[in-house]
Amino acid sequence: MPMLLWLLLLILSEQMDYNGTRASVPKGVAPKAVLLLDPPWSTAFKGEKVTLTCRGISQSPARGDTFWYRDEKPWKIQHNAIQIRESGNYQCKTLGSSLSDAVHVEFSHDSLILQASHPVFEGDNVTLRCQGKENENAREKVYYKDGKQLPNSYNLDFITVNSVSRDNSKYHCTATCTILSIVSIKRNSKRLNIQVQELFLHPVLRVSSSTPIEGSPMTLICETQLSPQRPKVQLQFSFFRDSQTLGSGWSTSPELQIPAMWTEDSGFYWCETETVTHNIKKRSLTSQIRVQRVPVSNVNLEIQPTGGQLIEGENMVLICSVAQGSGTVTFSWHKEGRVRSLGRKTQRSLLAELHVLMVKESDAGRYYCAADNVHGPILSRWIQVTVRIPVSHPILTFRAPRVQALVGDLLELHCESLRGSPPILYRFYHEDVTLGNSSATSGGGASFNLSLTAEHSGNYSCDADNGLGAQHSHGVSLRVTVPVSRPILTLRAPGAQAVVGDLLELHCESLRGSFPILYWFYHEDDTLGKSSAHSGGGASFNLSLTTEHSGNYSCEADNGLGAQRSEVVTFSVTGTSRNRTGLTTAGVTGLVLSILSLAAAAAALLHYARAQRKPGGLSATGTSSHSPSECQEPSSSRPSRIDLQEPTHSKPLAPVELEPMYSNVNPGDSNLIYSHIWSIQHTKENSANCPTMHQEHKELTVLYSELKKKYPDDSAGEDCSRGRAHEDDEENYENVPRALLASDH
C-alpha cells in the first residue's frame, strides 16, 4: 500500500512539473531542486550525522511534502530537511521543480579522510580539508591530485583548488597521526572524486523553421538554464553554420535574427554558450536547415518615361519585375531585331532596372524582358518605344558689309540649329533683351537685321525651340566702332594772362568715338606731342611757357577710322615772368628801390644819348634813326608785344641808334605806374635795309614797364584788402603801346 501511494504522488508531481509553472528555458523542463548539506562536507566519519535540505525554485525551503531519493530509488516522503547516517547518493524533488542533482555522502570508518566543500559548480574554487579522528592528532598533511602532490600544500589544514571542472580527477591526502601521544603512524586517505555540479545546462538550438522559404526571415534561439544557486552568472551566445560564425560573434542575447534566408544558407547549424569569464563553454547539437525556392511568375516590363515616348538625348529606364519568385533572379532585356540581349542582371530582388543613356533615333522599336531563377525564363509582353529629335544648340553668326562693324552698317544676325524637327522658332537677344523672333519651317535657320548704332555693341545670342525644349546658343560679342567727333581744344593757364614760366595745359577731347583715341597737339602746325586715351575725358599736354609759345594751337583725334582736327586757338604770352614771392616780401622798400633804380637807369641812358648825338641820329620828335645795316624784325608769334628778356631783333641795336625817352603814365588805374623806357621809330631807310620787316610794323613801338604804386595810408586792414584786390596788378609787368596810353589819358 505505501508503494502504491508513492507511485501515485510521483505521477502527479511529474504532471505538475510539465503543466505547471516552469522556467523559460529549456522548454518542457522544470527547474531543478537544490540539495544542501550541513555541515557542508560530502565525507564524514562513521557515526556522525549530516542534515539534507531540499530547496525549490525560489531557493526557499520547499512547501508541502518533499520526495527523497536514495541511490536513484524513492526513499521517503517527508518535509524539506532530513538527517542521514548512511552512505549513498541522495536526491530530492518538490512540487514545481524537477529532480535535483545527486549528492554522494560518504560515512567513512577510516582514521584519515579528505573532505571537499559542497556544493561545487563548474569553474568554482573548492576547499579540501584533510581530517583525522578526534582521538588522533594528524600532522604533516600533504595533498595530492591524481597521485601528484599539489604545489604549496605541505602541512596545511586545508587548501583551495581553483576553477574545478567536471572531470574524473582523484584527490587524496597523507598525514602523520599520533596515537595516545606515543605512536606516530603515517596514514593515507581514500581517493575522492569532487562532485562538481553543472553551472548551466547544455544549450539546445531552436529554429523558427527547418525548411524556410527563400527570402523569408529566420530566428535562431540558443536555450540553456543556469543553476538556481548561481542566478547572477552572465552567459554569452554564438551561432554557427558549417563552421562559419553567424552575425557579429559572441552576444549576450540568446537569439539571432536572420532577415532573409537563401538557398546558399542551407546547412548544419548549432550554437555555443559560455560564461563571460570564458572558463566554461558548452555546445549544442547540430540541426539541419534546408531553404526552399519559389519559381518566378507574372513577368512585367515597364518603360520610363511612361508610355515609351522619348526625346532624343533623354535617358530611358527599362524596369523588369516579377510578381512571385524567391532567391537569386536573373533578369535580361531584349529589343526586336537584335540577337543579343541589351543587358543582364542577377540579384536577389523581384525587380531590376536597365538604364539606356542618351537614346537615339535608332533606339526606337519593340522591347521585352525575361526573368529566371533556375526554373526556366519567363517572358514579359512587348512594349513599343518611339524617339523624337529635339533641336540642337543653335549657332549665331554675324553678316556685315565689312570686317569692322561701323555705325550705320546693316548687320544680319543668323541663327541656325543643325538638327531638330521643324518648325523651329528662333529668338534673337542683345544683352538678354529680346530683339525679335523668326520661324523656320525647314532647314537653313532664320535671320534678323539691325541698322547699327553705337548702342548696339555688346553680347548677342539666340535660341531655338521646336516644342521639345529650347536650346540657347553661345554668346557672340559685337563691337560697333564709332569714328571720333571733331575734338575741342582747351588751354588751361594759372592766371587770366599767361606769362613766361607758367605751366600751360593743352586739353583735347572728342565727345564721341570708340577707344582708344590718339590725340596730337600742334603749335603753328608743328607737332608738340601726342597722348592716348583709353577712356573718356580726352588727353592733355603740358608746356612750360617761353616767349616763343605765343601763336596758334590746335589738336587732332584719331581712333583708326579717320582723324578729326580741332579749331585753331590763338594764345599769347607776356614777356615778363611772375615773381609772387619777391613782390610780396619786398613791400614798400622794394617799390621805392625799383623806382630809384629805373630813374638812375633812365638818367644814364639820356646822358649817353646826348653825348653821342650826331646829325642823322635821333630827331627832335624822339624817333630813332638806324644805319642801313641795322634793323629789327618783330616776332611773328607776338605781333603786338615785345619781350624785354628775349628781344625779337636779329642783331643787337647799336647804342648810338637809341633815343631813350622816360616818362611815367597811368592808364586809368590809380594803383599802377607805367615807365616809358625807350621807343624805336621804323623809317623808310631802315625798312629798306631790312627786307624782312613787314609794312604793318612801321608804326612807333614803345616799351613800358608796369610798377607797383605805394599807398600812403597803408593800414593793416586796408593793405591786406588792397593787396588781395590788386594781386594780379602787382605781379604783372606789361608792355603797353604808347598810343594806348595816350588814349587812356
From TrEMBL:
GO MF term list: kinase binding; phosphatase binding; transmembrane signaling receptor activity
Any Pfam family the entry gives: ig
Composition skew (Basic and acidic residues), residue ranges: 640-649, 711-727
Alphabetical list of PROSITE patterns matching this protein: IG_LIKE
Protein encoded by which gene: FCRL3
InterPro entries reported in the protein's UniProt record: Ig-like_dom (IPR007110), Ig-like_dom_sf (IPR036179), Ig-like_fold (IPR013783), Ig_Fc_receptor (IPR050488), Ig_sub (IPR003599), Ig_sub2 (IPR003598), Immunoglobulin_dom (IPR013151)
Record-given protein name: Fc receptor like 3
GO cellular component: external side of plasma membrane
TM regions (residue ranges): 586-609
Membrane topology of this protein: Single-pass type I membrane protein
Lineage, highest ranks first: Eukaryota, Metazoa, Chordata, Craniata, Vertebrata
